[in-house]
Amino acid sequence: MNPIKAFIATIGSKSDTKTLDVESIYGISINALNGKPIDLSELKGKHILFVNVASKCGFTPQYKTLQKLHEEYSNKIQVIGVPCNQFGGQEPGNAKEIETFCEVNYGVNFLITEKVDVKGKGQHPLYTWLTQKVNNGVKDSSVKWNFQKYLINPEGKLIDYFFSSTSPLSPKIVKHLK
């Protein structure tokens, strides 16, 4: 292999892969926006849609369609918004500001977690599981921007991920709930 290709291959390698000591997504700990722990195992039997959210993003209006998905399929899916400030500083608010913004502007009443990092050295274990095949058993990915979505099946397995431009009510997502 020529030196340039070898160098590029090392840049693209998963040297930051971290195997989590959990059997499934249900073993991961994350807190709600109010600071109380969320027991993901209580969601067994339902799909889960994790979405890294932000209040000041061009995709922020997706809160409305996330809420609609939550309402129309509440017996089949739990939508979980995960605030993150890693993309353009578009989620600068504290927990109370995020909660107020979501409720007042979009009528959000689905679950919102604490603000976390979805990439990099401080990546929350939830996103380590979601983005690394060694943990989720399906595929590697990286979070490209706010409102990227990860769909989990009722048994806690990753189905797929969807980029920000995919509507929460897209047939790509909804077909799994029918």
TrEMBL record:
Gene Ontology biological process terms in this record: response to oxidative stress
Highest taxon listed in the record's lineage: Bacteria
Protein name per the record: Glutathione peroxidase
PROSITE patterns: GLUTATHIONE_PEROXID_1, GLUTATHIONE_PEROXID_3
Any coiled-coil regions, as ranges: none
Keyword Oxidoreductase annotated: yes
Organism: Hyunsoonleella jejuensis
Keywords (A to Z) from UniProt: Oxidoreductase, Peroxidase
Gene3D superfamilies attached to this UniProt entry: Glutaredoxin (3.40.30.10)
The keyword Oxidoreductase is assigned to this record: yes
GO molecular function, one term: peroxidase activity
Family (UniProt): Belongs to the glutathione peroxidase family.
Active site feature: 57
